[in-house]
Amino acid sequence: xxxxxxxxxxxxxxxxxxxxxxxxxxxxxxxxxxxxxxxxxxxxxxxxxxxxxxxxxxxxxxxxxxxxxxxxxxxxxxxxxxxxxxxxxxxxxxxxxxxxxxxxxxxxxxxxxxxxxxxxxxxxxxxxxxxxxxxxxxxxxxxxxxxxxxxxxxxxxxxxxxxxxxxxxxxxxxxxxxxxxxxxxxxxxxxxxxxxxxxxxxxxxxxxxxxxxxxxxxxxxxxxxxxxxxxxxxxxxxxxxxxxxxxxx
Amino acid sequence: xxxxxxxxxxxxxxxxxxxxxxxxxxxxxxxxxxxxxxxxxxxxxxxxxxxxxxxxxxxxxxxxxx
Lengths: 249, 66
Known about the structure:
The complex is a heterodimer of chains A (about 250) and B (about 70). Chain A contains ten helices and eight strands. Chain A is α/β, with parallel strands linked by helices and about 250 residues long. Chain A has one domain: Rossmann fold, CATH 3.40.50.720. Chain A starts with a helix and ends in a 12-residue tail after the last strand. The mean pLDDT of chain A is about 95. Chain B starts with a strand and ends in a 5-residue tail after the last strand. A five-stranded mixed β-sheet of chain B has the order 2-1-5-3-4, with no helix packed on it. The mean pLDDT of chain B is about 95. Chain B contains one helix and five strands. The interface between A and B is medium-sized, with 46 and 20 residues.
């Protein structure tokens, strides 16, 4: 049941036929693990907290640097040197005191990640490197937890959703099969803030849709965003039967 | 035969597979993703996916930033 404060707070959701009180209650019951509190995790976590996701777990091991502030909009200059998850947690609680936020201020290895996944309904991969992305994918496949992946560099964004609770779901590894990939990241390639912000925002949108029961436009798809033309391309990701993570191997 | 790669028309030999295409274009295998007519082709199928006249190929790089 939503209390009076919540009915007021979420009144614009309650007006939506696709959300309503049932949907809002589903958001309140939801547990989301957000890994990476940079340019993707900042907008994703702010929107999910505002939307009333009842349990949010934030994970990052980084401290805020001045070069983060050009795009990581959860932070301000006075936060420099502080832990990203602690500052974000404080911010989320200020936005929405109705929700629970927990922070994990270290790099999670496989065992801890697996343990965290037993308490998560959905994971947002907001990280900035290939090794973390492969580790998160593998753990989500094994734990059968749905995963929304965002990535961005320069003027380009990539967005995908794999529902690992479904048998025969493809995975990130079917698409990019190596942790040795010479993947581009923000520190070697540069990034425009609103591009990474767009992708992080859409990760939040897809998470909200997932919990209120709306079909995802990106399930088993890879969406490419071109921040110059504002064009989107959509590709189908097929399960690789030989995939070392989700296949029969 | 003619195919399109990232919206550019390219002339290719018949029976070219994706691995040969990437070699022909001087693109690294690692870090690349390839879609044929909007379907991503897993890397384990690059050698046995033969391209056909009129195919629409999208070639892009994996990005990890965030």
